[in-house]
Design brief:
binds flavin-adenine dinucleotide, six-stranded antiparallel beta sheet
Amino acid sequence: MASCIDTLIIGSGFGGAVVAARLVEAGQKVTLLERGAWRETAALKDYPLTQRAPLPHGKYFASHLLREVSVGGRLAQRQVLNTNGLFDIHYDKGMTSICSSGVGGGSHVYLAMNTRPLLANYWDNRANGLSADNMEAHYQWILSRMGSRPAQESDNIVNLVPQRLGHHPALDTKIEQPALGFRFGHTYANNAFLGDANGHKVTLDSLLLAPLLTKGLTVYAQHECLTIHQQQTGYRVEVFDHSVQKYRFLLAKRVVIAAGTLNSLRLLFRSQALGGLAQMPALGKGFSGNGDVFAIWQAGTKDDDFRTGTPTLGRFKLRGLPDSPMLYALGINGIDQIPLLPAFLRRSAKSWLALVGMGNDEANGRVTWRNDELHIDYQQAKNPILAHIYHAFDLLSQHDKKRVWFLPQRAITVHPLGGARVGNHQQDSVINAKGQVHGHRHLYVSDGSALPAATGTPPSMTIAAWASHVSQHILSEMKNHETDI
Ligand SMILES: Cc1cc2nc3c(=O)[nH]c(=O)nc-3n(C[C@H](O)[C@H](O)[C@H](O)COP(=O)(O)OP(=O)(O)OC[C@H]3O[C@@H](n4cnc5c(N)ncnc54)[C@H](O)[C@@H]3O)c2cc1C
């Protein structure tokens, strides 16, 4: 590895891949560390990549489903099960949080919904110089790179919400449907949360990273960053190379943290605790679960098969419920990849819809660090959006006379956000409007942990837009030769 890296990015999801692409496409050399492997998908088959791992499909389901499970609170511990596993689960009394691992980050498991925040003024007045108007160009850039657009009737996709549920008297489906980062016109199956081996879902490994490997980007897959220590000239980064089971130390002038919300917080907390980084008084403040609530709706009859379709089938609101939250629907798409599932369950599940309710929670959770592990304090009672979504599920069930199962009092999120949020002052924020950690000019945060509030909609495009904005500042600092550290 190079003796002193110019820009080192940690993590390859929406926050990391976008910074890598923006810098390399502007002519810079970039090194990216990703703890997971490249995923074996059709979209990558022509690239000469080593360190590949399968998605948890078929015979790999049990072995490659989970990477690690961690627990907060008094029982704090963390167990890595398979470094090539797809998902991380962090269980905590207040909130259970799910994220993924592998080159391309969450783009493998996400439902390809490419949306803007619920509030048009989301970015206004968050920090000096930030505004919704300034961020607009970044949204347009990423949406255009992803080729995002809503599914249309002419795409011949069965089961889309407006077509399949449009007649339902309790549902308003005539709302703007989410744009999808999806290559339409192929098969529409096995493309959702277990990853899409056919490569029809647009993922960041094939869209942004692999094409840049010959143009200035170096990706070290299966390399997990453990700590960051500020030095006189840059940062010393401790890394564990899972492929050969060895520790390595890298020196970098500039570091961009993009390990996904919880893993970025873990890295910042651990580095702070070991004295590698200055104290960050607001670290862990402003944590949000984006109002996520999950349910299973016995929506169909035995003749329905919702497994076929795009990763999400669309969204709807409930008529007659003031300020109805948006509910996103998906078939249990991917169930075919689970071996040994009892036949009755496979038969029943094909006519079920999974529902995800989302909305603006208060982003008033607090993440802390004790016994070398994260602890999430998040109180449902202080986040009224959750009760509102539970109420929506109850109403749907009453109206429809079909079961809607959900787990009240058990907050689970696939959209953990905040904790290293952007702002002007270090008492209530960790990074400034350029993405720099207060007091560390060449240390940036570009992922979901940087977001100042819940987006209330799927957040990847907002994370990507933020990462693009941070890249612009890194490039302008480079241009101004501001390399004094
Ligand atoms: C099932 C599911 C469905 C979803 N659907 C949608 C959707 O439809 N639309 C949407 O907008 N969002 C969706 N999301 C959320 C979306 O995936 C995340 O918001 C997004 O991926 C977060 O981007 P990020 O860059 O912050 O982190 P990630 O995408 O999680 O990327 C972080 C990367 O860093 C790596 N990493 C972690 N720790 C280290 C370390 N110490 N060293 C090196 N690498 C490290 C991880 O392996 C990972 O690859 C979904 C999430 C899930 C789980």
